Amino acid sequence: MERESDYSFDGITQLTEKEFRLISDLIYSKFGINLTEKKKALIRGRLHKLIRNEGYKSFEEYYNAVVNDKTGKNLLMMVDRLSTNHSFFFRESEHFDYLSNTILPEMARRLERENSPDLKIWSAGCAAGEEPYTLGMILLDHFDLQFFRSKPAILATDISITSLAQALEGEYPEERIKPVSDVYRLKYLEKAGPGRYRVKDTLKKLILFKRLNLMSETFPFKGKFHLIFCRNVMIYFDNETKQRLITKFHNYMYDNGYLFIGHSETLGRGTNLFRYIQPALYQKV
Ligand SMILES: C[S@@+](CC[C@H](N)C(=O)[O-])C[C@H]1O[C@@H](n2cnc3c(N)ncnc32)[C@H](O)[C@@H]1O
User: Fold this and answer.
1) Are 241 and 230 in contact (CB under 8 A)?
2) Residue to substitute in 233, 249, 265 for testing ligand 1 pocket (most ligand atoms within 8 angstroms of CB)
3) Is pLDDT of 1 > 90?
4) Which ligand 1 atom is the nearest neighbour of the CA of 30?
5) CATH of 17-82, one of 1.10.1040.10, 1.10.155.10, 3.50.50.60, 3.10.310.10
6) Count of C-beta atoms within a 10 Å radius of residue 37
7) For residues 179 and 88, is the Cβ–Cβ distance under 8 A?
8) Mean of the pLDDT values across residues 254-279?
9) What residues line ligand 1, using a CB cutoff of 6 Å?
10) Can you give the pLDDT at residue 145?
11) Hey, do 17-82 and 93-284 end up sharing a CATH topology, with the first three levels equal?
């Protein structure tokens, strides 16, 4: 029989059914991330080292420390380990083609008509910065820097502090910048040592990185956005959480603004609020 705080023969702390429920319920209620039974091995794998290093005897002891920590730091560390932060430059490149060929010219006309210097874009769930930096390269290619009188044009948010720290640093191994074309590489990246590249300041200045939980009831924004990218984030949410978030995106978006989601995702009921443009791209109605 499985005991509450057992150690397996390989020295890895066991995760009991009760502990799995406690942790998955906590992560769901705070961050909307739905860790199903299938993710049990993932939870155990991603947390066991932390548990051993910090000297906890069991997952339950660790869980209690997290919920009793008034600073909330332990909870952030927990979600940091459990969230999937995989991303890459120019991911789902059809989006960026449509952005440069159709949306940005349309936005430029719109902003001129409205006499507004403010193109506002939100990368919601920006991981280690690959998505907002890709967007920034395309923006700078389309408009010159002077266009962005009220900088930064891109707000990039995530819940993961480790990912945000990497994003702010803006340094990547050569392997990670492979999808960036030579032209963009030359314009927007610089060498940061052997096999490493750094995002140039002109590009960095366009982006504001902030920690933000998409589950928060309200978001601390003064204005609205023309474009919202929330790609490959809602796949971790259940339908109810996803619909609540889609409604919030609608509220924080200018009329006729665009919502980009991941290519393996759908809006479901939220499509009443947006009209379909092309796969994984919707416009506010
Ligand atoms: C798989 S990455 C997607 C990154 C990028 N958008 C892309 O498509 O490549 C998902 C990101 O969503 C973030 N995330 C998950 N739940 C979140 C929440 N409740 N609030 C804010 N960010 C969240 C994760 O930390 C992770 O960095």
Assistant:
1) no
2) 233
3) no
4) 19
5) 1.10.155.10
6) 9
7) yes
8) 92
9) 31-33, 83-87, 91, 125, 127, 131, 158-160, 163, 213-215, 231-233, 236, 262
10) 63
11) no
